[in-house]
Amino acid sequence: MQLIMTIDGKKYRVDVEVEEGEEVRLAESYPTTTVQATPAPMAGMPMAAPTPVTGAPPGGAAAGSDKICRSPIAGVVFKVVAQVGQHLEVNDLLVVLEAMKMETNITAHMSGKVEKILVSVGEAVQPGQAIAEFA
Question: Where is the stretch described as Disordered (predicted)?
Answer without folding.
Answer: 35-64
